[in-house]
């Protein structure tokens, strides 16, 4: 089973994808971890690296190509990244989208990264604007189009433990259909 978890920064993707993988006995791959490693290698923050990547599409394409390859060749995996649902295409058995109000996400990021909330909010908004622009330009993906997801959740509505219970129950209730029941995502340029 391939499960994708997508959403904006601070939405709970990493925490819940790791927890879901653990509870279901699946592997976990985080695109965010790979992206942060790429930024650190260049001595940049993720926000700085996002803006740097606007000028050289090869950084995004390399990361997305790698995640696409993982998504299309792996089973028994929870793949987590902002574009995971799009990158997996019709290979995903289940696609989740997580979100929360920007104020909640900024508080989570500020706590995680030991920075003031107002700074985390400003950086998050800059990062999201940068990513939105690049995804549309590179792949013709409107990141705000949630129609490809099987379930979308506002993660601010549950405590972390209860939310994980909701996710596990959702996956356990899933009944796969044959390959003809999976619809490819129309209109997406898969040239990563």
TrEMBL record:
Its EC number is 2.7.4.25. SUPFAM superfamilies: P-loop containing nucleoside triphosphate hydrolases. It catalyses: dCMP + ATP = dCDP + ADP; CMP + ATP = CDP + ADP. Signal peptide: none annotated. Belongs to the cytidylate kinase family. Type 2 subfamily. GO terms for molecular function: ATP binding; CMP kinase activity; dCMP kinase activity. This is Cytidylate kinase. The lineage of its organism: Archaea, Methanobacteriati, Methanobacteriota, Stenosarchaea group, Halobacteria. Keywords: ATP-binding, Cytoplasm, Kinase, Nucleotide-binding, Transferase. It is an enzyme of class 2 (transferase). GO terms for cellular component: cytoplasm. It is found in: Cytoplasm. GO terms for biological process: pyrimidine nucleotide metabolic process. Its main location: cytoplasm. ATP binds at residues 7-15.
């Amino acid at each position: 089973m391939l499960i994708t978890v997508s959403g904006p920064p601070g939405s709970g993707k990493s925490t819940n994808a790791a927890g879901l993988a653990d509870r279901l006995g699946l592997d976990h791959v985080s695109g965010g971890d790979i992206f942060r490693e790429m930024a650190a290698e260049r001595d940049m923050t993720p926000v700085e690296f996002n803006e740097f990547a606007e000028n050289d599409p090869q950084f995004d394409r390399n990361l997305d190509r790698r995640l696409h390859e993982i998504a299309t060749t792996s089973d028994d995996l929870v793949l987590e990244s902002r574009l995971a649902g799009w990158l997996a295409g019709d290979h995903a058995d289940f696609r989740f989208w997580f979100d929360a109000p920007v104020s909640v996400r900024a508080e989570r990021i500020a706590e995680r990264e030991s920075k003031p909330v107002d700074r985390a909010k400003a950086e998050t908004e800059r990062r999201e604007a940068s990513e939105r622009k690049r995804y549309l330009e590179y792949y013709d993906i409107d990141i705000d189009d949630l129609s490809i997801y099987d379930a979308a959740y506002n993660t601010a509505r549950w405590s972390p433990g209860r939310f994980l219970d909701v996710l596990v129950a959702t996956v356990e209730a899933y009944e796969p259909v044959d390959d003809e029941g999976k619809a490819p995502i129309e209109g997406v340029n898969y040239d990563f």
